[in-house]
Amino acid sequence: MAELQLKSIEKTYGSGFKAVHGIDLTVNEGEFMVLVGPSGCAKSTTLRMIAGLETITGGEIRIGDRVVNDIVPGKRGIAMVFQNYALYPHMKVRNNLSFGLRLKRRPKTEIEGATQDVSRVLEIEQLLERLPKQLSGGQAQRVAVGRALIKQPEVFLFDEPLSNLDAKLRASMRVRITDLHKRLKDEGRPATVVYVTHDQVEAMTMGDRICVMREGHIMQVADPTTLYERPANAFVAGFIGMPEMNLVDAILTSDGVPHLTVADQTIKVPEGLGERLRLAEGPVKFGIRPQHLQISPPEPKTRFREP
What positions does the domain ABC transporter occupy (predicted)? Predict the structure, then answer.
């Protein structure tokens, strides 16, 4: 496995539209990095540039110690799992899994051993003699993952691989993929993964770190807890979390002790946060998550009986 580095990556199409605006991102060796964001944020474009399926118009992509800008996809040391699985319909599962190794003319004993190993890890041994049309969606997805895994690439790329599955099966496959990543790490063969999704639940439950994108820019890169508890900006605060964070306009005053004025109420800023905001005064965005709100009934009026 290898470290993946994107340095000042840009993508401009012939029409002049700039899809990716000089992004920088490092995916550590053995890390599970998730790219997440709304539709049109260029997360899939970024993944396709890493794979070599899209040309870059600026910057540098480095896998391990190699700059791969001008290297064809097949020689980049990557394996990609697509949204539509992309299995060969005329080949049985066994041949779908081993196709990449057979192209490289690996010995038959090595191919058979690798096929058995991968099918065991993904629990698809009983499917080896079936055709893709005889598989369920979840089974086909596991075969697609196995076909990537058997190549032992330097970087795994996943392009919204679970979006065609129903909710229950999608949740099950999330667990399978993350368990597979952990198992490979425990076995001493860690997998460097870049995983694209528009589903923030997938992102928050699967990623070691998450890269939040918007309109071809990176908004924040952090672990799930940091993204949730300390978003870097209003976009990340509103995008991460179900239900989303409430964001309202407020006025920050800092005459000794910072206070927020929201509508006609004044709120004392907690001590730890107050230190960070002491020099910032004026209009701000105040964000609070719904589960942190508590509605208290008004205190009952005391009634006195006449003696």
Answer: 4-240
